[in-house]
């Protein structure tokens, strides 16, 4: 397993904090998406019981013997995975469940293998996804309003659509025993990458490890907060805003003594949806930085890439000289 090249950075105190109920939320969200592509959300309205219930059902699942968990894998692309991320050679100190948000679409009836009480995990996942999807929709509407786009559902309709190709993931990072031996070096739990979709909504327990990369290339550690959500701008939203919003590069480093459990909703558009910079956001002579593509085309290309690759390069327009 790879070690991160630097010591884990000190906690960063500059993460934008958005109170979803505040009147200035939309302007602050736009600023955060332009500067970092990342922010923390409080007063989000998602009941803590839903969050705790999913966390405890997931913890029960990950405590099962490996042989039982493996009955729900390997992820192809959905299912239980251990250390291998994607199918192109990436590895991390992590085990996970990767699910289609339309639970009935998950292959091979693997949902029925969800531990001792499959129904409980299944309904915890369903309730959680539906609450978080609504919150993502609300945030995407605030983004459109903050950008002064007339059609306030221009982004939200993509993830709220019945055909939306959204994904849900629960990651478990066990404490990393090799850490002591390596004295102060952190192993990679989940290697650096950007998320391909429109928006990612992350919630974790109180274990540190999540880092984002700033524009200057420095990595900063995000203080964990189990009662808040963290929002990542994904590649597709960067394209729709013609680069105005930044798809944030992030990674997870392991912890030597505590396990980390995170749950991430990746809000993606329907497969047939055409993704391109919105004409209404182009100012004056501004040129489109990206070629139009369907989400299906982007996804196919993304799933053939390595985690750390810049997946937008093949879709960039060459600037005219
Ligand atoms: C290495 C890979 C894993 C990934 C598919 C990919 O080929 C490149 C993008 C990766 C990523 C990152 C964000 C999400 O965790 C994810 C589910 C996604 O949509 O894109 C993963 C993919 C995965 O784990 O299958
Ligand atoms: O587990 C985490 O905290 C983040 C993982 C992540 O970035 C991902 O699954 O795409
Ligand atoms: Fe990610």
UniProtKB/TrEMBL annotation:
<dbReference type="InterPro" id="IPR050231">
    <property type="entry name" value="Iron_ascorbate_oxido_reductase"/>
</dbReference>
<protein>
    <recommendedName>
        <fullName>gibberellin 2beta-dioxygenase</fullName>
        <ecNumber>1.14.11.13</ecNumber>
    </recommendedName>
</protein>
<dbReference type="InterPro" id="IPR005123">
    <property type="entry name" value="Oxoglu/Fe-dep_dioxygenase_dom"/>
</dbReference>
<comment type="pathway">
    <text>Plant hormone biosynthesis; gibberellin biosynthesis.</text>
</comment>
<keyword id="KW-0223">Dioxygenase</keyword>
<comment type="pathway">
    <text>Hormone biosynthesis.</text>
</comment>
<dbReference type="Pfam" id="PF14226">
    <property type="entry name" value="DIOX_N"/>
</dbReference>
<comment type="similarity">
    <text>Belongs to the iron/ascorbate-dependent oxidoreductase family. GA2OX subfamily.</text>
</comment>
<dbReference type="GO" id="GO:0046872">
    <property type="term" value="F:metal ion binding"/>
</dbReference>
<dbReference type="InterPro" id="IPR044861">
    <property type="entry name" value="IPNS-like_FE2OG_OXY"/>
</dbReference>
<feature type="domain" description="Fe2OG dioxygenase">
    <location>
        <begin position="163"/>
        <end position="269"/>
    </location>
</feature>
<dbReference type="GO" id="GO:0045543">
    <property type="term" value="F:gibberellin 2-beta-dioxygenase activity"/>
</dbReference>
<keyword id="KW-0479">Metal-binding</keyword>
<comment type="function">
    <text>Catalyzes the 2-beta-hydroxylation of several biologically active gibberellins, leading to the homeostatic regulation of their endogenous level. Catabolism of gibberellins (GAs) plays a central role in plant development. Converts GA9/GA20 to GA51/GA29 and GA4/GA1 to GA34/GA8.</text>
</comment>
<keyword id="KW-0560">Oxidoreductase</keyword>
<dbReference type="InterPro" id="IPR027443">
    <property type="entry name" value="IPNS-like_sf"/>
</dbReference>
<keyword id="KW-0408">Iron</keyword>
<dbReference type="Pfam" id="PF03171">
    <property type="entry name" value="2OG-FeII_Oxy"/>
</dbReference>
<dbReference type="InterPro" id="IPR026992">
    <property type="entry name" value="DIOX_N"/>
</dbReference>
């Amino acid at each position: 397993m790879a070690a991160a090249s630097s010591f884990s950075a000190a906690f960063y105190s500059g993460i934008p904090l958005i109170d979803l109920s505040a009147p200035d939320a939309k302007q602050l969200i736009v600023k955060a998406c332009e500067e970092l592509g990342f922010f923390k959300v409080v007063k989000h309205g998602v009941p803590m019981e839903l969050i705790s219930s999913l966390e405890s059902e997931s913890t029960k699942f990950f405590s099962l013997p490996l042989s039982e968990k493996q009955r729900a894998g390997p992820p192809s692309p959905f299912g239980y995975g251990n250390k291998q991320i994607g199918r192109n050679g990436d590895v991390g100190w992590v085990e996970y469940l990767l699910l289609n948000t339309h639970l009935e679409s998950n292959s091979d009836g693997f949902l029925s293998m969800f531990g001792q009480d499959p129904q409980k995990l299944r309904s915890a996942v369903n309730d959680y996804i539906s609450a978080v999807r609504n919150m993502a929709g609300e945030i995407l509407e605030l983004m459109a309003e903050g950008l002064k786009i007339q059609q306030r559902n221009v982004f939200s309709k993509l993830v709220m659509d019945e055909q939306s190709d959204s994904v849900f993931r629960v990651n478990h990072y066990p404490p990393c025993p090799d850490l002591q031996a390596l004295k102060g070096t952190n192993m990679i739990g989940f290697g650096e990458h950007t998320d391909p979709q429109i928006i990612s909504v992350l919630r974790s327990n109180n274990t540190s490890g999540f880092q984002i990369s700033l524009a200057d290339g420095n990595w900063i550690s995000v203080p964990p907060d189990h009662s808040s959500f963290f929002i990542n701008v994904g590649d597709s939203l960067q394209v729709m805003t013609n680069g105005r919003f930044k798809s944030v590069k992030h990674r997870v480093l392991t912890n030597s003594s505590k396990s980390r459990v995170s749950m991430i909703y990746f809000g993606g558009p329907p497969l047939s949806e055409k993704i391109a910079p919105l004409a209404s956001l182009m100012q004056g002579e501004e040129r489109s930085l990206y070629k139009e593509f369907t989400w299906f085309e982007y996804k196919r290309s993304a799933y053939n890439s390595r985690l750390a690759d810049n997946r937008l390069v093949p879709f960039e327009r060459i600037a005219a000289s």
